[in-house]
Amino acid sequence: MEEEEDLENRPCMLQDSLALQATEKSFYDVLSAGQQLIQHTCGQKYLGRYEDFSDSVEGPTSSKHLASCSEGLDQTELYDTTLLCSSKNPGFYSDPPCCQNTDAMANYDTRIAHDKLKLIRLHCSPYGEATERMAHYFADALEARLAGTGIELYTAFAKRTISAADILKAFQVYVTACPFRKMSNIFANKSIGMLTREATSIHIIDFGILPSGPPKLRVTGIDFPQPGFRQAERVEETRRRLAKYCKRFNVPFEYNAIAKKWDSIQLEDLKINRDEMLVINCLYRLINVPDETVYENSPRDDVLRLIKQIKPDVFLHGIVNRAYNSTFFVTRFKEALFHFSSLFNMMEATVPRENQESAEIMNIVACEGTARVERPEPYKQWQLRNQRAGFRQLPLEQDIVKEVRAKVQRRYHKDFLVDEDDYWMLQGWKGRVIYALSCWKPVDD
User: What phi and psi, each to the nearest 5 degrees, are found at residue 255?
Assistant: First the structure.
């Protein structure tokens, strides 16, 4: 544990588990496929120059030294500047294109579809303005849908070698330019801190684990299995990093690693001790658990039933607020256009365009069946799902919401928003809600 990690040569494994999930398919699913967006665990892959949002100004200011700020740092320092709230890390609508004739794509009418694609290609570019870049990625995805090459593209994407160091640098760019991840962590950490202030022993069960007189801390890190013989390698990597931080800050620490399909986890796997304060943390990862549109018995509801069985003192739930989980292609396509028009507009204002990419579009447009692993629901739909599963929603801590809102207003672009609705803290861009967070408790039977 004392040895320094070789981040430059260590591959980033965060795509692998979803690649495995997408390729576990029926013969029907071979007809389509796609790729998966890195942001759920490590933020957007934006490498290179970026902008610093200082506390003293409302908008972005030029900051030349930040482009290579991680060069020359040792591995511990790199993690500190990326993951900790330190002074070295200061930042922790145009109309969508026309979507006529998508019926041709839905029905695989290749002649009409190819004619329309040719027209789209005349007006799109990966290097153009926001709308042109978005049209480029949607055109790529439509082409893959027609050609049936999604699985090959997805597999190629998952096998790309991206070092852990590059992912950390990309994540640092992301949290500096965009508040969503950092403010989500502040919301979760402050909420846990208020709840566990008097606790002598805390057990955090983290679905979608990432590194994030003290009490004894026990963490159960859960993630999807990776392909191959070392299916729990990513979860174990996180254990080693957390252990180093806990040793550094003198926190007694235990860790239980689980790499399984989440709906197959049993209560006994979690090693519950009823003398501990129990916290469930699940930020933005249930999007990748299949629902009733894929299987008659929804794995998504199975996970919620497991969480209710655990009987946590609090269940912190972060969701990706998107409405493109329809089984009907045209509906899904239109909703994705509206959503990504906001995202690309946001990226245009905050991140250099040459460093942007969106593989999530490929998965949404080119995939059907179990190959489609991006399955978001709006927060109102999650609210009903959680209530049906036997949870009641807790009021938001107003001091935490005020702190998050003040940080976003002070440090980030003026068009980012923080709002509240029915016990949800909402984050978004120019009036469109992109993420939502809330706290829940199981209702006694």
Answer: -140, 135
State the Cα angle at 111 between 136 and 118, rounded to 5°. 30
Note whether 408 and 418 are within 8 A (CB). yes
pLDDT of residue 183: 95
Residue 8 belongs to some domain of the structure? no
Q: How far out from the chain centre does Cα 93 lie? A: 23
Q: Tell which wins on pLDDT, 442 or 164.
A: 442
Does any domain span residue 98?
A: yes
Enclosing domain of residue 398: 16-442
Q: Domain for residue 30, yes or no?
A: yes
* Helix, strand or coil, per DSSP, at residue 413: coil
Report pLDDT digits (tens) over 312-321.
999 999 999 9
pTM score, whole prediction: 0.77
**Structural domain total, the chain:** 1
348's tokens: 């245009």
Give domain status of residue 1, yes or no: no
Q: What is the pLDDT of residues 371-383, one digit of tens each?
A: 888 899 999 999 9
Helix segments in 148-224, DSSP class H: 150-159, 164-177, 180-195
3-state secondary structure of 320: strand
Report the distance separating Cα 253 and Cα 419, nearest Å. 35
DSSP H helices in 3-87 = 16-23, 39-42, 75-83
pLDDT of residue 174: 81
- Residues 313-356: pLDDT tens digits? 999 999 999 989 988 899 999 999 999 999 999 988 987 665 55
Beta 424-429 vs 277-283: how paired, if at all? unpaired
Please state whether 399 falls in left (phi above 0), alpha (psi between -120 and 50) or beta. Answer: alpha
Over residues 91-112, the mean pLDDT reads 58
**Which one-letter amino acid corresponds to residue 122?**
L
Measured distance CA(427)–CA(135) in Å, rounded? 25
